[in-house]
Amino acid sequence: MIPITLEDLVEKNLIQELAFPSRDLNYARTIFRELEEIGVGRVFISESDEPELIKLGKGYRGLVILGEVGDKRAALKILRSDAALASLESEAEATKLANSVGVGPKLLAYSRHVLALEFIEGVSFDRWIKDLEESRVDELRKVLRECFKQARLLDKIPLDHGELSDAKKHVIVKSDLSPVIIDFGKASVKRKPSNVTSFFSYIAFGPHSEKILRMLRVEKPPVDRSRKYKREMTDEAFKELLQSLNLY
pTM for this one? Predict the structure, then answer.
């Protein structure tokens, strides 16, 4: 991949890629101005005869491209031109709140249509679990403990992530086994938080639940402990849930 300045983006006729999926030039110019305003110096393009922006992800709310803010590598989330949302500002506020307790990628800067987030290098939780050898139980325990710890911190704020029951898309595991909860697009302080129980649901009943429970030597999901935590949401109930999963 090749880093280029925003001006180069214009010269190489790639600016319309900023308006996904419409490629509307006026919207692209709006995004270009906002990238400048929040301090984006460079973006990355592919090395090919027909280069394009390096895309880290696409969703129904936004396109994520790779760039730099100052000397920091950044994931730049750009509001889709056809998104139902008017702005990404509520997601920025939720990310800031999560950051206040040490959770999530750091919010570097934001505008109405763009979020500049710390770039997290790693693999999705789904891919990490798939590739994990069953002999590496200690690694599994380390990652799961940290995921539950972060989920508990969010419950205490209280900020409900909203999508941790599908953790495969919302947790990245770094090479040092540090998991990072990402994408606070659906997060809210208006709902009763269910981060711990949502993550429990994923590991107990999700696509890799059989492997996870087998590695943890848990015969069946401790649903009673999860329900108790949901009712009480105390440190003691949280401890009991982790103990029932052989994670404490």
Answer: 0.95
